[in-house]
Specification:
two-stranded antiparallel sheet; flat; mainly alpha
Length: about 1250
């Protein structure tokens, strides 16, 4: 601060040291001072905003010699220049400090001897300029009020200036009261105006005057001002700041009525400094009698005090402050609470007790949440000051405990978070205010209330506030009062409670481990949080209840569960939904140990459906809750009769086809658990009735249903079927896989429309089937059959694995779009997870595949042992087969069968080609534009390479190093700036090159700025590196890959446009220039064949084919950009016949686009051609015609009509032909000729009055 004040002071003295006050007034705004001065003052204003003006004010210089130059600087400011408001603000604060000089100001006033005009003296000018700034709408008003209060509270300002300002203030307040009455009489709403800001400034100044002025001198003004400010408060309370300032003024007027004193009845705890308490002196002192009087704990124990006169006007002040506690704005309530604390500490005990009673009246059910909040703040303020006597605590503590859980419904939400936060502040204040002996009777209630708020409050700030209050109580009141306080604080600290899920499900269980708090936690969850208005809180409360079952199973089963069962059909949606969720989680945790309530639990679904609670408002969440209940009942393995099982299955089926995805997912989860636990099968598989009821029904819906919601749900249902229903024989498994593969195809339609969610769910179902039945014999399961024989499930055969892989590879190319955007990304994300699952299962099932198969085999090596293993390893497999044969013969007491003598060679489900395709597709997705897809692909690739370490990875070491996917490292794959710099390095691996380039081209040519910027920068850096290292082979391969993509995705705008943008970027950055490709040939780079470069001609043919018949402006623009890049390479001098033919073809194509039917296209082509000619003058055959060609381009209206009209004498076609002649471009006669309208297709001039709209317009004239 000194580094800002000192140079500012020097500049003020240098600029205004010789300037008199009269001169500063006359030259107002003519000399605002140097700019550096305003910079210093602006920085000071910023510090005042951050640190507070009271702190900054003390750091200004306060020498008498600085007063006049500072005032002159302020007077010279141009008030119309609002950009320099911070300078005026800082100068006013500076003046407020300088005005406190301990001398009579007249003795340092240079104008007092030279001028007889009292209005121009120093004091008058300070007061005048400060009063003029009281109507400022910004922070200057505050600085002006502070400056005025500093001047007017000086001892030499008692007469004259002070009386004048008080009269002026009274007139402003009277005018404000009259204005408000006029506005109310007209039925208008008051608004912000200069008068409003002036009133704020005056009130602010008065508050400072009554605060810092001599009480005896300001008593004469109290009576006259009190009536006026009451009228202003009652009639003009539309502005928050004005109400806050009025409350501040009320409290200062109130403190003026009463003398400053320390009331003897105040509660004094004694030494509350931890440092003093821990010092040796404190220990010694504690062993001796305390010199402090014992604190009063009841009304009778209060020390007698002398009678003090309390003016009746003080009652009006207290009433206004109590009204302020109800204000709708927090700042007003907080100011009122502090004001009540300041006034109460000067009152006699009886009056103070009346104030406490008035505050307690605000804790009423009829009062608003604002009143509760203000009352809490006031109680905390009284407790901090020792004004809340202990005999009041038995009545106050229950109210505070109630306020800790205050939550009032307002429509779909609730209010009360600020009340709960303030109640925690009261608990914090109590911990610091009262001794442990006083608080001991109330500790149990307060501790439980604070803990429940810390664990289960919806808002993070309330949980943390409760935790802080609990910590303060444990520290101040002692661990003896708060049982297990230290242990609880260790687990439920400030940061841990920030996670709401963890607070509900983990920390609550730890705290409930202490029996003292267990019943309170269970009761709060059961009676409050389980019926909360927020569905997320109800879900967390049910999970928390389920986790608490282990601590008291009997109480949960006999009391809680019984109570919740009685509420499943409650009229209130929140109650019945929470009850069902609570029952579900308790049943899951209890298991089969609910025999007393077994019948009632299994009857819940029937009761809910009989009451038709699925209908109407809230029916969706009830469906979800019932599905969760069915799932938990199944997981708990409760015995159910067959009729009930079928009834539950019908309920789940009805929810599976619901349009809301979350309900469908919940129903599928319930179906999975239900079918796994119930519906037994025979050794030959399920009965025909069960098979048709489940599998055939679901398959038929998926394949034939026109309702998209049904196909989505039942596709997931097929995937969740247990092995006993879907893999009881190879034919059934093959049927399911074939159906899902068919429905996952991008061409599959639901009704007449494709449905991305159905395809996605089919892929998810395939993933679940792979997880359930496994590959080969890897996950064979055995089920006890109803015919007392075992059913052995089958796994996926090699043919099915290959079919699923093929389907997934096709699904990875799903880029379908609709009005929601890239819906195909949902399918691709599901496919990425499916590919990972199937790859791991296939690798694990390939017993003949070495886990550490070398990467050179994947890259095309000849070493067979790397795949099949060494001779010793193959002999070990053979020995294992022989041992299995002998063991089977001995166990069956029968000779070896023929098939045993010829053991099968283990199937290999994963090979080199599959590995390359899988990793290539993942790398392609990793290089694409969507952040979520990149993130998923990157994490899957990391797991496959480093965690699971699948074999047959081509160039594993190089790929791992390029992507930095080392074990233990975490990477934000969604970040474009980091991902693309890594994926570009893997582009040098031949087998992955095309896949990466395809994904990268989509990103480079995309629309997202961050993705385009990062991917383009990475690609250009790679090109520069290759050119520096003379990696011509890689550059040539990049060009061939881009040409291959253009051919592969011909007429596919999703790929063609990004590829063209990528080609344009590379050509612009000289990555695919002809001279570079010629240099590659001269260096005899590999894979560069032929004497002539084929990239340009080939790409030109491709873009001509794309431009033919295209109506997409976006594609045509991309084509034009690439074409112009070729134009910039034209150089007629020294070109052979083949090059000239190529150049002619380029220009002919560009001139064909100059005659395009779209005016926007013609205009864009002309603009780009002009730029290309500026960059490359050699594109014109005859240099002498270069200027004429440029003039024709500039002077022609290329977005005009193609042929001449009445308004346009020369058409675009003529201009185009003229330009072609100048540039030496040969156009065909057909292109040059005027188009003739086909017979019978002549354009008929439209009658302007032929339309109804024209008729209406004419009539309207």
């Amino acid at each position: 601060m000194s580094k800002l004040v000192a140079p500012s002071n020097n500049l003020i003295h240098e600029t205004y040291g010789e300037t008199t006050i009269e001169a500063a007034i006359e030259a107002k705004s003519a000399n605002e001072g140097p700019k550096i001065l305003h910079t210093y003052l602006t920085l000071i204003s910023h510090l005042a905003k951050v640190r507070g003006y009271k702190t900054i004010k003390k750091l200004f210089t306060h020498e008498a010699v600085d007063l006049e130059p500072t005032l002159s600087c302020l007077l010279s400011q141009d008030r119309s220049n609002h950009l320099l408001w911070s300078s005026r603000y800082s100068l006013l604060l500076w003046l407020s400090m300088l005005a406190l000089v301990p001398f009579d100001i007249s003795t340092i006033d240079s104008t007092s001897s030279s001028s007889s005009n009292t209005s121009s003296n120093l004091v008058s000018q300070i007061i005048s300029i400060s009063k003029s700034y009281l109507s400022d709408p910004g922070p200057i008003r505050l600085a002006a009020a502070v400056c005025l209060s500093s001047v007017l509270t000086r001892p030499d300002m008692e007469h004259g200036h002070l009386q004048s300002f008080m009269s002026y203030s009274q007139s402003i307040l009277k005018a404000r009261v009259g204005q408000n009455k006029d506005v109310e009489g007209k039925g208008q709403v008051s608004h912000l105006s200069d008068d409003t800001f002036l009133t704020m400034g005056v009130v602010h100044t008065l508050a400072h005057l009554f605060k810092y002025g001599d009480r005896e001198k300001f008593l004469i003004y109290v009576d006259s001002f009190l009536e006026q400010i009451i009228l202003v408060a009652e009639n003009g309370g539309s502005q928050t700041m004005l109400r806050k300032l009025l409350v501040k003024l009320f409290q200062r007027v109130g403190t003026t009525f009463m003398p400053v004193r320390i009331v003897p009845w105040r509660y004094q705890r004694g030494r509350r400094s931890l440092l003093n308490n821990m010092s040796n002196n404190a220990v010694v002192a504690s062993s001796s009698p305390s010199p402090l009087p014992p604190p009063p704990t009841s009304p009778s124990s209060v020390t007698s005090e002398p009678e003090i006169y309390v003016p009746p006007e003080l009652e009006d002040v207290v009433d206004q402050l109590l009204t302020g506690l109800r204000d709708r704005d927090t700042v007003v309530r907080w100011s009122a609470a502090k004001g009540l604390g300041r006034i109460t500490e000067r009152l006699p005990r009886e009056c103070a007790d009346d104030v406490v009673g008035g505050i307690l009246e605000l804790f009423s059910e009829e009062e608003t949440d604002s009143a509760w909040h203000g009352a809490n703040l006031a109680l905390a303020e009284l407790a901090r000051r020792g004004l809340l006597l202990p005999f009041r605590l038995p009545k106050i503590v229950p109210i505070i405990v109630k306020a800790i859980h205050y939550d009032v419904r307002r429509g779909q939400n609730s209010v009360g978070a600020h009340v709960r936060d303030a109640a925690c502040y009261v608990c914090w204040a109590f911990a610091r205010a009262y001794s442990p002996e006083v608080m001991k009777p109330f500790v149990a209630d307060l501790a439980e209330g604070m803990l429940l708020a810390a664990l289960f409050d919806r808002e993070i700030n309330c949980r943390r506030a409760a935790s802080a209050a609990f910590q303060e109580n444990v520290g101040r009141q002692g661990n003896e009062n708060f049982s297990h306080g230290i242990e609880i604080l260790t687990a439920a600290d400030y940061f841990t409670l920030g996670n709401r899920v963890k607070a509900f499900t983990e920390i609550s269980c730890f705290v409930a481990g202490f029996e003292k708090y267990r019943k309170g936690i269970i009761g709060h969850l059961t009676q409050v949080k389980l019926f909360h208005w927020d569905v997320e809180i109800r879900l967390l409360a049910s999970k928390g209840l389920g986790n608490l079952v282990e601590l008291d199973r009997n109480y949960m089963a006999d009391v809680v569960l019984k109570e919740l069962i009685g509420k499943v059909c409650d009229p209130d949606l929140l109650v019945r939904h929470g009850a069902v969720l609570g029952i579900a989680e308790i049943v899951k945790a209890q298991g089969s140990n609910v025999s007393a309530q077994h019948a009632a639990i299994t009857n819940v679904v029937v009761e809910v459906e009989k009451a038709r609670l699925y209908r109407g408002k809230g029916g969706e969440i009830m469906r979800s809750a019932i599905c969760r209940l069915i799932e938990c009942v199944s997981l708990a393995q409760l015995p159910l009769p067959v009729k009930t099982q079928v009834r539950l299955l019908d309920s789940v089926d009805d929810c599976i086809k619901h349009p809301l995805e979350e309900i469908s997912v919940s129903a599928v989860a319930g179906l999975r658990a239900l079918l796994k636990q119930y519906f037994p099968v025979a050794s030959t598989g399920p009965s025909s009735r069960l098979h048709s009821r489940v599998f055939e029904k679901y398959a038929k819906v998926v394949e034939e249903e026109d309702n998209a919601a049904a196909t989505r749900g039942f596709a997931l249902a097929l995937g969740c079927l247990p092995a006993k229903l879907i893999a009881f024989n190879p034919e059934a498994l093959e049927t399911a896989v074939n159906l899902l593969c068919k429905c996952a195809d991008i061409n599959f339609k639901v009704g007449e429309e494709p449905d991305a969610e159905t395809r996605r769910n089919c892929v998810k179902a395939l993933t679940e089937i792979v997880k359930t039945v496994g590959v080969g014999e890897n996950k064979i399961q055995t089920f006890s059959g109803t015919d007392k024989k075992d059913l052995v499930s089958v796994g996926l055969s090699k043919a099915l694995v290959e079919k699923i892989f093929a389907t997934l590879f096709l699904c990875m190319e799903d880029y379908s779009m609709d009005k929601r955007g890239d819906v195909g990304s949902w399918v691709r994300c599901a496919t990425l997870n499916a590919v990972e699952t199937l790859t791991l299962e296939a690798v694990n099932a390939s017993k003949s595949l070495r886990p550490d198969a070398a990467d050179n085999a994947a890259a095309g090596g000849e070493d067979e042992d790397e795949v099949l293993g060494t001779l010793a390893e193959r002999m070990q497999l053979l020995d294992e087969d022989i041992n299995n044969v002998v063991l089977a013969s001995v166990q069956s007491s029968s000779p070896m069968k023929d098939e045993w003598r010829n053991p099968k060679v283990p199937e290999q489900y994963f090979d080199v080609a599959t590995s390359i395709t899988v990793l290539g597709l993942i790398l392609k997705q990793l290089a694409e534009k969507l952040d979520n897809v990149r993130d998923l692909a990157g994490n899957i690739l990391h797991r496959l390479l480093n965690v699971d370490k699948i074999p047959l990875v081509a160039d594993r070491v190089f790929l791992t190093e390029a992507l930095r996917t080392k074990e233990g490292e975490t990477m934000n794959w969604a970040s474009p700036s980091t991902t693309f710099t890594m994926i570009i390095k893997a582009m040098n691996i031949d087998v992955y090159h095309e896949a990466i380039v395809e994904g990268l081209a989509v990103s480079v040519g995309g629309l997202t700025e961050s993705v385009v910027k990062s991917s383009a920068a990475a690609l250009i850096d790679w090109v520069k590196t290759m050119k520096k290292l003379k990696g011509w082979r890689h550059l040539a391969r990049l060009g061939r890959t881009l040409i291959g993509l253009m051919r592969k995705f011909e007429k596919n705008e999703r790929i063609v446009v990004p590829v063209l943008k990528t080609v344009h970027l590379l050509l612009q950055n000289e990555a695919l220039r002809s001279e570079d490709r010629r240099t590659a040939k001269e260096n005899k780079a590999e894979d560069v064949e032929g004497e002539k470069d084929s990239f340009g001609p080939t790409m030109l043919k491709l873009i001509k084919a794309e431009a033919h018949g295209s109506k997409s402006y976006k594609k045509i623009v991309a084509i034009v950009d690439v074409g112009m890049d070729f134009v910039s390479e034209i150089e007629w001098g020294g070109a052979d016949d083949e090059d000239k033919a190529y150049f002619d073809e380029i220009l002919s194509f560009i001139f064909a686009l100059l005659g395009h039917p779209f005016p926007k296209v013609r205009k864009y082509v002309a603009e780009q051609l002009y730029v290309a000619l500026l960059e490359n003058e050699g594109a014109v055959k005859d240099d002498s015609k270069y200027d004429d060609a440029c003039s024709v381009i500039l002077e022609s209206a290329w977005d005009g009509e193609v042929e001449a009209t009445e308004e346009q004498e020369v058409g675009v076609r003529v201009r185009r032909n003229e330009l072609a002649d100048l540039m030496g471009v040969e156009l065909s006669e057909k292109a040059r000729a005027k188009r003739v309208a086909k017979k019978g297709k002549e354009k008929v001039k439209k009658d302007e009055l032929a339309s109804y709209m024209s008729l209406v317009k004419e009539a309207g004239r």
